[in-house]
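Sequence, structure tokens reproduced for reference:
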Amino acid sequence: MNSSVRTLSAQESRVILTLAEQNRLEVDRQEIIKLLGANPKAADSVIESLRRKGWLERASWGKYLVIPSDAGPEALAETNLLALASRVADPYYIGYSSAAEHYGLTAQHRRVIFVVTPARVRERRVGEGRVQVVNPKPGKFFGFSPVDVFGFKIMMSDREKTAIDCVDRPNLAGGVAEAASILAVASRRLDWPKSAEYLERIDSTALIRRFGWVVDHVKAEMSGDIRERLLRLAARGPRTWMGPNPTSKVLGAIGYDKTWRLFVNVPGEELRESAGLGLRKQLNKDV
């Protein structure tokens, strides 16, 4: 980015320097009007100029995020989309492929930010991205905490919940193959007892079976006691599936797995690259 883009006029400098001295990351229109001692029309002109130069980003009506002067082009472009998306609803957390990308669990990049919230809010555009709102079942809204993104505190699902959420709803993770890859990469640093507790808390036999099958598929290093714990939980209830409903025949589908009592209605070719990926990652880590 050309540094001249962020050159400031005297009034603009007054706003930004004052906010920097106060370590502010957010500001509203009325504060800027008061700070400048100007009429609303003049203040709006300053605000618009600061937005155009990349110092302010509109979060909601009359409220703006302050882009830190030392954050660099990344904060002005991609990363602050998370901060903007976080203002859409409260409570919330950033999840699915958006969280996976933040943790480095996927190489995919999409301009869609998944905001998980019980609040009924409409989807919207933020900057050059789009917010997709996900309303979870009450029992699934947990497993998140604040993370720092260029000075902004953003609620995000932890690695364990991110991996589980992606297996639960692979359509929000880039597909079944990508969800499997995310779990494989995440498995290097997963807290397995916490993962098992999360799965028990969600209380979905279908999800436990899918998670367990993917763990075996990618050959993630899960302890025997955790595996047995999940198998016990997976033993109850009718048969379930992963992928489209088995009434829809999928050419080359992997088929029924007796261990997890799961019909994998996904082509083997689609999951070929993720097979054993967790083991390969573990071996690479040990080299």
User: Anything to note?
Assistant: The mean pLDDT is 88. DSSP finds eleven helices and twelve strands in the chain. The longest strand covers residues 129-134.
